[in-house]
Specification:
single chain; 104 residues; 52% helix
Amino acid sequence: MEKRHIIRFLKEGKRGAYTLLVKMYADEVLSMGTSLALEIIKEDLQQQAGEPVNLNYTSLAHAISRFKKTNKEDRSNGQPRKWVFKDAHETTDRQLAPGRFKLE
């Protein structure tokens, strides 16, 4: 989607405009904090529109948190994260099973 459409949606106060904005700037948003991302997005949209664009910090922060929750994947290799659970008999550390003690 083009930036001019997103600028128009933001000015009209349409629902989902911040979600589209976060999806468009996903790389920048995920690699830095919310306030830094807000400034970078404002500058980029201002260059495109030629006039200042007002962005709400809270709305952007909520959209970023929703985006992070829905896109839970490992950033290093792009694969979804997998939980690794091991039972007591599967672990290789030196800890003994519950109730067992080693006397030296």
